[in-house]
């Protein structure tokens, strides 16, 4: 059975908790093992080795190789290796097969980790404009970046939009609970 790639669910990618989305690889291939590590938020030496094995395996399709780069990038974000993660996302995108906004949520996550908040907002805005399937994640990341820039009203609005787009998601509710609204 040939594995295939599709966009997958939300994953919290680091302690400051911006959102990233891994790329799903099904089957029993080394690329699928790397995907399972990303889903389980395993980012130890073994997980990285498994992803590297998948990238060296000549049987892994081009699409699954690109997905593995994305998943390995997410593991690198967990390891606070944000520049390396951005490199993996760039390489994956250069392999083709992704719409322009497909990796924007992941890039934003890495950029937040690097303190490059304005660039992170540009990435989230790309995903939002394209109504990417992870639009709620983009709004969450946008809120995190705006809050770091001390743009609290805009951050609050972004968290509200994330909550609106994904009702029942605890993360934006948690972020919103930290805000106190008062009149002047």
From TrEMBL:
UniProt repeat feature TPR, residue ranges: 136-169
Record-linked SMART domains: TPR
The entry's keywords: Repeat, Signal, TPR repeat
Domain of life: Bacteria
InterPro entries linked to this entry: TPR-like_helical_dom_sf, TPR_rpt, Ycf3
Signal peptide: 1-21
PROSITE patterns (UniProt xref): TPR
Protein name: Tetratricopeptide TPR_2 repeat protein
Organism annotation: Maricaulis maris (strain MCS10)
Taxonomic lineage from the root: Bacteria, Pseudomonadati, Pseudomonadota, Alphaproteobacteria, Maricaulales
């Amino acid at each position: 059975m040939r594995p295939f790639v599709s966009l997958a669910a939300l994953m919290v990618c680091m302690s400051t908790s911006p959102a990233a989305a891994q790329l799903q690889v099904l089957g029993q291939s080394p690329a699928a093992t790397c995907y399972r590590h990303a889903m389980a938020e395993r980012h130890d030496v073994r997980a990285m080795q498994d992803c590297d094995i998948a990238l060296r395996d000549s049987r892994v399709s081009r699409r699954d190789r690109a997905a593995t780069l994305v998943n390995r990038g997410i593991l690198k974000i967990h390891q606070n290796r944000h520049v390396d993660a951005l490199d993996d996302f760039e390489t994956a995108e250069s392999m083709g097969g992704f719409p322009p906004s497909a990796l924007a949520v992941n890039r934003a996550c890495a950029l937040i980790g690097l303190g490059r908040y304005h660039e992170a907002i540009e990435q989230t805005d790309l995903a939002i404009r394209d109504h990417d399937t992870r639009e709620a994640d983009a709004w969450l990341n946008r809120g995190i970046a705006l809050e770091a820039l001390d743009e609290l009203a805009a951050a609050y609005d972004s968290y509200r939009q994330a909550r609106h787009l994904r009702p029942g998601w605890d993360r934006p509710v948690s972020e919103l609970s930290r805000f106190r609204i008062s009149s002047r």
